[in-house]
Amino acid sequence: MASNAADVRPPIHEDGLPGSEADLEPKPDWHPRYPGSGRLHGKVAIVTGADSGIGRAVAVLFAREGAKVAVAYLCEHEDAQKTVEACEAEGSEALAFAGDLGDPAVGQALVDLVIGEWGRLDVLVNNAGEQHPDKDIRAITPQQLQRTFQTNIFSMFYLVQAAREHLKPGAAIVNCTSITMYGGEAELLDYSSTKGAITAFTRSLSEQLVGQGIRVNGVAPGPIWTPLNPSGGASKEKLETFGQKTPMGRPGQPNEVAPAFLFLACEDSSYMSGQVLHPNGGTVVNG
């Protein structure tokens, strides 16, 4: 008999992950850059990985635009509380939820909490992810490989499965992929592979749901200054020149990426599904 239980292994213990924004210097710029216009008024959103970086910028921008926001994160409680407070300072409501979304039961618990608190779910942003630099494919252990896929792509399946019955016509799902899916990244083989899977997931899920009035799109950021990079995503040498290879010659800030998520979450993008936006500093990619 088939079982619904997943073989979810314990997280790999790494003191530097997922990375604290409170300890990061210089601080990423996540504050919304323009006044809200009510584009998500009355909506309820889940944003994963919202304790810091891109996720925080998205959560606070959504709150400014009128959404109630569930801030989902792994274990950075101080950062997550700051995100909640920033959302509330925008005049909206927010709640924090800690847990490993690589476990399907955790995704279900998150959705149950949101429905119990607010009675609906309109926008799901799958942003949580992790990455580990390895210069040699032989250095990637089976545990790391499984963990990276579990966090980055399995969690999206689990959360969408949990949320599906609550997503009505007009709902939107926005997944975070990466420029590494399009150009590759020598030191991030497992991470880049998950991002390819996320892009395929986005396009295929769109095909499944678009006829039911639910839009599914993605955002593929380039090099963005977040805790993920110094804590686990880039070597010391790469950090010294982080983002300088882009045509703009610099890394992006989280608040330069968040508007792409807002656009895909609201009715401004009502004729878009199965698409990917590319806030990446001017790098031209296919697809």
UniProtKB/TrEMBL annotation:
Belongs to the short-chain dehydrogenases/reductases (SDR) family. Gene3D superfamilies: NAD(P)-binding Rossmann-like Domain. Pfam families: adh_short_C2 (PF13561). Residues 43-228 form the Ketoreductase domain. Keywords: Oxidoreductase. It comes from Novosphingobium cyanobacteriorum. Coiled coil: none annotated. The keyword Oxidoreductase applies. InterPro entries: KR_dom (IPR057326), NAD(P)-bd_dom_sf (IPR036291), Sc_DH/Rdtase_CS (IPR020904), SDR_fam (IPR002347). This is SDR family oxidoreductase. The keyword Oxidoreductase applies. Residues 1-36 are annotated as: Disordered.
